[in-house]
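Researcher: Structure prediction, please.
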Amino acid sequence: MFPFLAKNFLSALWGPFRLLESRLFLILLGAIGCTILTWLLLPRLWDYLPHDRGKAFVKGSEKAKGKPTGAGFLTTIFFLFCAFFVMPFYWEYALVGLCLFGIMLTGYLDDRSTTDWGQLKKGLLDCAIALLAAWVIGHWQGTQIWLPFYKGPLPGGAIQLPSWLFVIGGAALLWIMINVVNCSDGVDGVAGSLALYGLFAMAVLLYGVMGHEKIAEYLLLPHIQNGASWATLLFTAIGGLGAYLWYNASPSKVLMGDAGSRAYGLLLGIAVLVSGNPFFFLVAAPILFVNGGAGLVKLILLRTLKKFGWDTRPPLSIVVNPIHPENFASPEDAAKQHALVRFLHHYRFPVHDHCRKNLGWSDAQVLIRFMLLQTVLMPLFAILMIKLR
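Model: Predicted structure follows.
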């Protein structure tokens, strides 16, 4: 809104309003504005949020029980409100904002529900929103992608994909990003901090590398003309996420819930898709993919084995006071399970649960070590994919 107003009205009224046409100024305005708004309003409103009911099969869940959850509902609204003022006024950005609001709302309604929505229902909703977001980006940005270690005939070594293939592949990437961030939420600060790192990395790439014509040309990368606008969106989200982490630092006072993890996962995926390189998920979220993605692989394997008639119930020993013990394998039954099933159940997922339960890491150790690993891996993968081409 501000860029439109400054260009057409405000600059004529007073010269300094030209600053509102500067992408760097808008980035600072969006990030700082969203930080202040979230930091001030979140603690005043979180008592109206649903409260965490705890999970019997998650180590340490008793610490979260009773805390306000679903804070992503508020942080996403604050972020979209601020983005409205600092982003250019185009319908494509509005549709992206609608997708972010929609994925947040599905998570928030699940947070509020007294009965679990079920993985099928949530998965289908995620898929529908991911398809819409992928279509918007493909229609607007085009359907070219570029790959690491490859220089093709098109500018930047890009490959032109059919529209239908781009939408399907892009939606799959977005669906995975939504769920790996969602699966990583469970330790104070982990999902939020790693998502913030990823958003920052993608914002820098879109603004200062691929959004800069000369730098992109030097590195043999496709130039993204509206990269600065996408970076403005990401930096605005970073501001709100940073303010949320102020209150989510261990011991947390509020939890983002599915409302936040799904929205930030979708935003990370959108940034990767806009970059044109689907493998940039390794730059944006390497530890998130290991932490949450491994759990998705385990779930798919166990579901597949169950359909072949194998006993895939988790052992009763991993649960404290189970409500339905019949859904778990007794020690005798667990000993009779196939070696592959026992192997899968030996490692807890998400990986942060395995680190806490099996390796004895504290929550602070999980957070710091995961952040250190991501700090090392993000620039490493960026250099490998950008320079070695």
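Model: The beta strands are 144-146, 158-160.
Researcher: Thanks, that helps.
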